[in-house]
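User: Sequence recovery, please. Input:
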């Protein structure tokens, strides 16, 4: 079927960290590459964006990158003499500039306007997915679009060929060797277990590393540069920086530079256990299909704990009670060394379960597929 949707505007504000721009950039690339859309991505923080896309020129207000039109925008001085596209996606309720909303309202038909929401497994998101909210003054309706682990929701971002690329990588020892070599970490190939560690500040890190250092099995912990390094440094009792490695007993910690998204995917594929955080790296870790521990983004009034329990609920068929305990201990920043000593012993049971969870999710339609179908329907109805 030929889609009536030819082009899309995506607006993103970077609140903190990389999740918002990570998701919007991935969405933009998939809509362009897999659906042939003309995509214009509006971003208010090119410096953060450049961490994910180093070819970006942070000095340019407008540029084409990976076939996507990238525009810098700021809420305070947005000038729109621009015609909005068929679909306008507001990333995570970032609020569109008034002048752009006016321009949308003047179009016939007006664009399909979506608010792409944060990922949550909470059941209320399924009730709200696809609901419309009328603008108070303008003849526009905004629809809520919720990413989801449940086939009734908005799906998860996944590139069409991602799982095949992962399998090719995992079946190719040379590719894995090249990957670790490119990071100057070939030592990772000769240990019993490899872990990746991406988290917010977390008191459990020192206990985890102490436990790993005391194991019979050897372990390589790859830490891309970021907030959790403060806790690694507390354990190391020194200041480690990108490129540094430290071996204590059975554990070697290697601090990596912040990786490109492609390299980060490969890191998740190449490791046996992945500690991830926020939203986008969590989804990528699901696609890696390896046991994972999630450092959920902390929210006011502990709202993230409901979110965590909801995710544990949807993954419970694929996760042992013991692994769920470790998951809760990671978020509650447990410093119980004896508990962290069970991580590797739980691994063999956790491995096939996480693979099954990944396969289960991989059978669902992707976020882009669902989004395109949703927009086509709304566009035809206008
Ligand atoms: O950076 P985050 O903590 O982003 C967060 C969350 O999305 C949270 O839900 C949101 O509310 C908050 O921002 C404002 O975690 P996240 O979502 O995993 O994003 C990290 C991105 O960085 C992801 O796209 C993976 C990518 N990444 C790399 O490309 N290279 C790296 O080396 C690493 C560690 C990550």
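Assistant: Recovered sequence (382 residues):
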């Amino acid at each position: 079927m030929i889609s009536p949707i030819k082009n899309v505007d995506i607006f993103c504000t970077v609140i903190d960290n990389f999740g918002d721009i990570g998701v919007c950039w991935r969405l933009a690339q998939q809509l362009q590459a897999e659906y042939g859309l003309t995509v214009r991505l509006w971003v208010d923080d090119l410096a953060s964006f450049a961490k994910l896309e180093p070819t970006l020129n942070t000095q340019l207000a407008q540029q084409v990158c990976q076939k996507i039109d990238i525009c810098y925008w700021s809420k305070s001085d947005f000038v729109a003499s621009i015609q909005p596209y068929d679909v306008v996606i507001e990333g995570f309720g970032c609020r569109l500039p008034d002048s752009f909303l006016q321009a949308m309202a003047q179009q016939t038909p007006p664009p399909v306007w979506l608010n792409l929401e944060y990922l949550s497994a909470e059941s209320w998101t399924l009730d709200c997915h696809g609901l419309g909210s009328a603008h108070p003054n303008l003849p526009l309706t905004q629809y809520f679009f919720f990413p989801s682990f449940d086939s009734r929701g908005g799906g998860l971002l996944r590139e069409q060929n991602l799982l095949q690329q992962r399998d090719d990588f995992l079946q190719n020892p040379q590719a894995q060797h090249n990957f670790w070599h490119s990071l100057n970490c070939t030592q990772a190939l000769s240990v019993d277990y490899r872990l990746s560690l991406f988290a917010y500040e977390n008191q459990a890190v020192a206990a985890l590393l102490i436990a790993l250092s005391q194991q019979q099995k050897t372990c390589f912990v790859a830490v891309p540069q970021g907030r959790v390094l403060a806790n690694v440094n507390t354990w190391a009792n020194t200041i480690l920086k990108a490129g540094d490695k430290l071996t204590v007993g059975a554990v070697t910690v290697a601090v990596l530079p912040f990786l490109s998204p492609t390299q980060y995917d490969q890191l998740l594929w190449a490791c046996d256990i992945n500690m991830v955080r926020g939203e986008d790296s969590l989804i990528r870790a699901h696609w890696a299909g390896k046991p994972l521990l999630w450092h959920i983004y902390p929210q006011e009034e502990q709202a993230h704990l409901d979110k965590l329990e909801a995710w544990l609920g949807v993954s419970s068929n694929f996760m042992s009670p013991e692994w769920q305990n470790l998951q809760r201990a990671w978020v509650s920043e447990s410093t119980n060394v004896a508990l962290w000593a069970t991580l590797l012993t739980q691994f063999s049971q956790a491995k096939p379960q996480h693979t099954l969870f990944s396969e289960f999710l991989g059978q669902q339609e992707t976020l882009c597929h669902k989004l395109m179908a949703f927009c086509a329907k709304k566009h035809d109805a206008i």
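The pocket of 2'-deoxy-thymidine-beta-L-rhamnose is lined by residues 15-20, 22, 52, 118, 198, 224, 226, 258-259, 261, 264, 277-281, 297 (CB under 6 Å).
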